[in-house]
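Entry 12.
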Amino acid sequence: MEGAFQACRNCKRSMAPAHLALHEAHCLLFLVLCPECKGPVPPAKKEEHCENGHQQVWCAMCQQSVQKHLLEFHEATECPDRPVECKFCKLAVRLSKLEIHEHHCGNRTELCLHCGQPIMLQELAQHTDVCRGEQAQLRKAWLGFNTSNTT
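Predicted 3D structure (C-alpha cells):
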C-alpha cells in the first residue's frame, strides 16, 4: 500500500497520487521550506518561525545552549542537571549529582523495625525481607516450644 503514495516535491509529505498535483500546486504557491528544519511554512510566517522555533536559548539548569523549540524536551529528558528523586530520602537532586548523593545517603543507617539493629539504607529492603523471615521462624519455634511445654 505504501508504494501507492508519492511525496510532494516541496514539503515532502506523502499522499495518494490522485491528490498530488493539486497539493503540489497549492504547496508551491503558498508554502516555503524552512532552511533549518525543512518544514513547510507560509512565507509570511517564515521569519517568525525561524526566530521563535530555531532561536538559541540557555537552559536555566545546565546553562547549555539549546534551540527554543527543543528546550522543553531537553529539560525533561536530556539535561544533566534536571531534578530527579533520590531513592532513599526522596529529595530532588540534580541528575549529575545523584550518584554521589545516593552513595552517601544510602550509607546512612536506620534501625530495623523488626530487630532493632542499625542497617544501612541501601541494604534495608533486603535486610527487612531476611529479618521478617527470621522473626517468623523464631515466633514459630517459640510457639512450638510453648505448646510442647504445656502438655
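Annotation: The longest strand covers residues 56-58. The chain is about 50% helix and 15% strand.
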